Amino acid sequence: MKRISERKRIVVKVGTSTLTHRTGRLNIRRVEQLVKTLADLQNAGHEVILVSSGAIGLGMGKLGLMERPKDTPGKQACAAVGQCELMYLYDNLFSEYSITVAQMLLTKYVLLEDRRQNVVNTLERLISHGVIPVVNENDTVAIDELELEMGENDSLAALVATIAKADLLIIMSDIDGLYDSDPRKNPDAKLIPVVREIGEDIHAVAGGAGTKFGTGGMKTKIGAVEIAYEADIDVVLMNGGHPRKLYELFEDKPVGTLFSKNADI
Question: Which helix (H) or strand (E) holds 106?
Answer without folding.
Answer: strand 101-106
